Predict the structure.
Amino acid sequence: MTAEALAVSRPAFGRRQVHAVAACYFVASFAALGLPPYFTEILPDLGDGAARWAGVLYVVPTVFSALAAPLWGRLADRFGRKRLLLRAQLGLAVSFLLAGWADSLTMFTVALVLQGVLGGTFAASNGYLGAALDGPRLSRALTLMQGSARAALVFAPIVVGALSPWLSPHRQYALLALLPLAAALLLAALPEPAEAEETAEHEPEAVHPAPRAALRRLYALEFAFVFSTVISFPYLISLVEERLPGASPTLSGLLFALPHLCYLLTALAVHRAVHTRPRHGIALGFALIALGLAGHGVADTLPALVAVRLVLGAGLTLGMVGLSVLAADCARGRAPGGMFGSLEFFSKAGAVAAGVTAAVGSARFGPTAPVLIGGGMAALTVLATLLPPHPRTRWSH
């Protein structure tokens, strides 16, 4: 297939298909992101009266997703990205049903392990998109996928809380299993993205993969980004309660959501601004993350907390969009399933490391410690990002 034929064939996979994949990820993420904050209510019914295992179980799906993602990515490259994306959605449905009907802590834990092993919808979705799109179109699609994740993170806990008077969060797992099933039905109507594979086979000289050094740096930046942002999540509510005694749960939830709302409102505009210079966007993003997290250490009024949350949101948006551009660049000429599976491994590893560090730091030094540790990591990453890249490393097209 010639480059001209490729230019004609690829637009067949257009905006509607990308939006469908993003929408499927959004609905399938509801239980995965909306129910873990309610573990302290779920576990007493399963025999853990003090919910002592809530913190451990919170990261169980993340750990097993990190371990399984590279394997599922390689299998997607071998057996078909659409097939493995459908497998991920159906795997989530099975694990949610098991969690919803578990009658013991052991069975609930097994269900969460299966959620991590059988899920992986984010990496599978990105691998699917990476086979159909490239360049700016792929980076925009990855930006939209991150928007789906932010939207689910904001709205899912609210919906779960609203349903709780009628159906316990535990049983909501079984109800929300319908969402990945619905997503699988919608995805079944989408095409298998075969055009990119065909081009790679017949015209290998037309695609020049980014050097391995660029891929390694992408993985390192992904780990540092997830670590420095996620570390502030688990104990933010405690920090707000310490700084604003008497703050309502609604106010605490809004403060938690502010950075993610920033992403939802500005990500596509930021993509237009940084897609030709992602390294500068990432460096500025890490600088704002460091500044915002450091501000959490001293902010003791509502306006100050709103300000530092907005600064953090600006950094989160710049960093996430810049990383999407780099990921799209690194995916050129590579099997996307394996690459995005490996990227998911480093993302999940950063989240697990952040959770463990936050727990240890908070227990020893109080709820301010996680944001200061995350700010330090972000500041160090700014310096590393601004170092001249390897001469053969391409940071943009």
User: Anything to note?
Assistant: The first helix runs from residue 3 to 9. The CA atoms of residues 282 and 319 lie 5 Å apart. The radius of gyration is 21 Å.
